[in-house]
Amino acid sequence: MTTWFITGISRGLGKALAMAALAEGDTVVGTVRTGPFSLEHERGVLHVLNVDLADDGAAEASIAEAFARVGHIDVIVNNAGYGLLGALESATDAEVERLFAIDVFAPFRIIRAALPHLRRQASGKIINITSIAGRAPKTGSALYSAAKYALEGLSAALALEVAPLGISVTAVAPGAFRTDFLSPHSIRKSETADEAYAETIGRSSVAFDAAAGRQVGDPDRAARAIISLVRSDNPPVHLLLGSDALQRARSKLDQVVDEIDAWEATTLGTDFRQGL
Length: 276
Ligand SMILES: NC(=O)c1ccc[n+]([C@@H]2O[C@H](COP(=O)([O-])OP(=O)(O)OC[C@H]3O[C@@H](n4cnc5c(N)ncnc54)[C@H](OP(=O)(O)O)[C@@H]3O)[C@@H](O)[C@H]2O)c1
Known about the structure:
Bound molecules: NADP nicotinamide-adenine-dinucleotide phosphate
Strand content: 15-25%
Largest sheet: 7 strands, parallel
Radius of gyration: 20 Å
CATH class: Alpha Beta
CATH superfamily: NAD(P)-binding Rossmann-like Domain
Helix content: 40-55%
CATH topology: Rossmann fold
């Protein structure tokens, strides 16, 4: 049986994953911001920790408490997070600092606190829920994309660093999944400042609103995909979830390759000339 630590099991993907792991008979240590909280489950063991990742020291304290309760943890899932949409020039320092605190610094601190335990175990799987916005961004998500790109980069480099220690890292990038993510309860928007953005940010804001409740991704199927990744002997460093994520990632890769090709001579022209 597998023991999981999952942030943000109150709703959405985190809840679906916790439910799926419990249904397999696994043990889940899950965090929620406000308690008491429970999940209806017939199998498995659930430990709930009250954690607001915006609080100083919360990430480290939650890992210490989780290992104290269950001793050994096989999988750490950095799931809790939210999106910030709107024009970059409208975003305030406070909005961006909070976004990075939850979507980047909290996962970093959780991983940093967990690594000594995982190294002692000589095993562990770290799963960071990023986003297709962290690989192929859409208009109106500059800061959210920046946060998720940061978590993608952290994951890719960390995977190299900890592989020799028996620890794997996977960045899981979902497309649009039918959770509360786009609901007013979760998503945040910077006030749009200028008419100049009506055709770009304005339109994308309307499109994001219209997508709420109609996303193609099924959270229960995402949970099953993450469980199969955890059961795999050779988990990937990157995993896309959803047909929309696949389409966006492939089209972005094509654009990147085309651009590299178009500018190849310029790229190669910056080396010292041979023999100088
Ligand atoms: N759904 C999508 O379309 C989608 C696409 C790409 C990536 N993602 C990513 O998937 C992850 C899960 O999102 P979701 O779709 O399940 O959204 P959701 O339904 O809004 O759930 C978000 C979860 O994160 C928790 N959370 C938010 N801020 C927190 C904080 N300060 N401290 C502790 N927990 C906090 C929430 O707890 P509360 O209930 O207390 O608010 C909730 O459990 C996020 O990292 C998101 O960026 C989602």
